[in-house]
Design a protein that fits this description.
This protein is α/β, with parallel strands linked by helices. The chain is built from seven helices and 21 strands. The strands form two sheets. Strands 1, 4, 5, 7, 8, 10, 12, 14, 16, 18 and 20 form an eleven-stranded mixed β-sheet that branches. Strands 3-2-6-9-11-13-15-17-19-21 form a ten-stranded mixed β-sheet, with helices on one face. Helix 5 packs across helix 6 and helix 6 runs antiparallel to helix 7.
């Protein structure tokens, strides 16, 4: 088994960076930052509950050749009626993508094809926290390509960014990236989808940056359903300007070990955010969710509901912080963490937090952990359902409050079927 330092150093190897241009300089700085920060130590406050020993058993190599997939290979993940961008092992796949429904209100494509765009240069790596997050720095140093989404008006077709990790003979590290800029008064729905094909070991280190200018509105759905031999670390940073509305629904089903960090800065007066999250895991899976809602300006609102469902010997972690800065008067914020244990060996840690530097606020939070209601289980069994089917129905009912908030009905139906028919099948 590698040490934490050796594992992180291995991920930095094999990437030659050309220093030319604004991106080359940014990559070099990010590489230096990643080396300086290194892998977070076991005692690090944000990582102390997350067992990374399974990750440290592997030596991850960068992707050197990219798999060629067909539409049949990814058929299970396609969503009708969307503007689709597909990335295979971090590389844009135009033959699998479909942007026919894009109109004058949206510009989409591969990030590396737009490096000459001043808006890209102005926005890239400005929202994500590279200086104090080793994995964001590692992605900035090593990413091969990414999605570029610029919304200038109202877009009715959802944007679907599909990231596929493929099976490899040796463990590989891939670096998905996305940059989304919502111009003033624009409207859009974004689906970020992380999936895996085959049973190879992979490490996905993803970074998404989102900027909402004045009065923009974004519905952001994030689905992580990689294979249970995969490792997935994702970081999403959001900056919301005056009067903007950001709504997130983040779902974690897959991966042996996954971590999702979501940082939302309400940087304009009257900005609003709603964060909905669900982790559904079993076997020896670990799902870690860290969120920060930063109320930086007056009269902003936030509401958060996060649910964890843990079976087998799995471990779910939720750490959610709401920060109200000095001067952010009129803040209205609420946070709820609700959790369901399906096994005596499963483990859930929940840490809702408030950090307030202002008196003129309305803030509240709470957390609950329980088991499946025995009376409800008995009732369903008395109506002829098997215990497994009854437990699946009750689990689905608990999860449905989150899933049904997704504004894409076909995706809601697909995810509901996953819970009802295949719940926990891949515990390892």
């Amino acid at each position: 088994m590698l040490t934490r330092e050796q594992s992180f150093e291995q991920m930095l190897l094999g990437k030659t960076i050309k220093p030319e241009g604004w991106l080359g300089k940014l990559r070099l700085n990010a590489q230096s930052t990643a080396k300086a920060l290194n892998f977070p130590p076991a005692r690090h406050d944000d990582w102390r509950l997350t067992d990374l020993s399974a990750l440290l058993q592997h030596t991850f190599q960068p992707v050197d050749t990219y798999a060629v997939l067909t539409h049949e290979d990814i058929a299970d993940y396609l969503i009708d009626g969307t503007i689709r961008l597909v990335f295979v092992d971090g590389s844009y796949a135009p033959d699998l993508s479909d942007v026919a429904q894009a109109n004058d209100a949206i510009v989409v494509g591969a990030l590396t094809e737009r490096l000459g765009d001043q808006l890209v240069e102005k926005s890239f790596a400005q929202v994500s926290v590279v200086d104090d997050d080793a994995f964001s720095a590692l992605n900035t140093s090593n990413f091969d390509d990414g999605a570029w989404v610029q919304v200038n008006g109202e877009v009715t077709a959802p944007v679907h960014i599909l990231n596929i990790a493929t099976r490899r003979e040796a463990p590989t590290a891939i670096y998905p990236r996305a940059l989304v800029v919502m111009q003033a008064n624009s409207r859009a729905t974004l689906i970020e989808d992380f999936a895996g094909i085959g049973e190879g070991v992979s490490f996905s280190n993803a970074v998404t940056e989102i900027v909402l200018h004045d009065h923009a509105q974004l519905q952001h759905i994030r689905v992580q359903r990689e294979t249970n031999k995969a490792f997935h670390f994702g970081h999403c940073a959001v900056e919301s300007d005056k009067g903007s509305v950001y709504t997130s629904t983040a779902l974690a089903f897959g991966a042996r070990v996954s971590r999702h960090s979501l940082h939302v800065t309400l940087a304009g007066e009257g900005a609003e955010s709603t964060l909905n999250g669900l982790a559904l895991i079993a076997g020896r899976q670990i799902a870690d969710t860290h969120t920060l809602i930063d109320h930086a300006m007056p009269r902003c609102k936030s509401n958060q509901l996060h649910k964890c469902i843990a079976d087998g010997a799995s471990h779910a972690i939720f750490s959610g912080k709401i920060m109200v800065r000095e001067g952010a008067s009129g803040t209205d914020s609420a946070q709820s963490s609700r959790n369901l244990l399906l096994s005596g060996k499963a483990h859930i840690d929940t840490q809702p937090q408030l950090e307030i530097f202002n008196d003129d606020v309305s803030c509240k939070h709470g957390a609950t952990i329980g088991e499946i209601d025995a009376d409800a289980l008995f009732f369903l069994k008395s109506r002829g359902l098997t215990e497994e089917r009854a437990r699946n129905l009750l689990t689905h009912a608990f999860a449905a409050e989150i899933i049904e908030k997704i504004p894409v009905q076909s995706l809601v139906e697909s995810l509901s079927k996953t819970i009802l028919d295949e719940r926990m099948k891949a515990g390892v």
